[in-house]
Amino acid sequence: MQSVDIEALNQQIYIESAFVEKLNEATAKVIVGQNYMIERLMLGLLSNGHVLLEGLPGLAKTLAIKTLSSAINAKFSRVQFTPDLLPADIIGTMIFNPSQNEFTVRQGPIFANFVLADEINRAPAKVQSALLEAMQERQVTIGNDTFSLDQPFLVLATQNPIEQEGTYPLPEAQVDRFMIKAKIGYPTKEEEREIVRRNLKGDFEKIEPVVEPADILRARKTVRKVYMDEKIEQYILDIVFSTRDPKAYGMGDLSHMINYGGSPRASINLAMASKAYAFMKRRGYVIPEDVRNICHDIMRHRIGLTYEAEAENITQEDVINKILNTVEVP
Prior knowledge:
- The protein is of the alpha/beta class.
- It has two domains: 22-200 and 208-214, 3-Layer(aba) Sandwich (Rossmann fold), CATH 3.40.50; 226-326, Magnesium chelatase subunit I, C-Terminal domain (Helicase, Ruva Protein, domain 3, Orthogonal Bundle).
- 48% of the residues lie in helices and 16% in strands.
- The strands form four sheets. A five-stranded parallel beta sheet has the order 2-5-8-1-9.
- It is globular.
């Protein structure tokens, strides 16, 4: 009976995930390579999770987000984070209207489907905290009024990992609300040749919307239907719990390296993103490779390292690799 259900689910997902290919084709008209980055942005889109892109300047982080937003018939806004930014610059504020002799709400750029927070670590904590309510509750409070944000709503943020002057570390509470933290690398030589040629030519294609917001919302419901076996659930829990108590999983050498492990959000997001990844691969069930493929992106910003680990140049990547190589795969 179960195999019949999965077969029917497979067919449904194969049909409903067709728009993913359309989005890939649309973004490829502007973005050369960077398939990993586009894939992670899509994962966030399908999982209703915010995405943080970390990479050096010039790697098309902002362009990729703008291009993906253009391919979806939705409202897009961009906020350039700077040290003098105020919370009201993001969420909006109360403005006195002399003609009506009362205060009215002027909504900020947060009222969009896709909000690009460019160089998010350049603004102080007061501004970062203004995003928290919107990211978690999908609502904004201005004065005495609370406004629900349109769906889909996604915060897509970028940050530069090398230039620390004039930057502020993101508060842990906010970092944890990003479902995915993707580290973006350089393109290959062939890809960069194509990038140079396109820029010298100066003839960039205009992206037309190929997907409606309703398609995204419908796909999110279907993603939740993707079948996940109990063994896969247990595998996800073992990965997350091993960051909290490495000794229990035969990794005592990690105990002095991990200051704190993944929160329950790590388990939720790892499960949700695994389903979304299976959906993108046009499959109706999750396999262990789905979990392993996206594990680094879900976990790297949720593991706190000790000073001892940092002194030994141990990174979150090293810890996650050790866990994936040790925890038994179902």
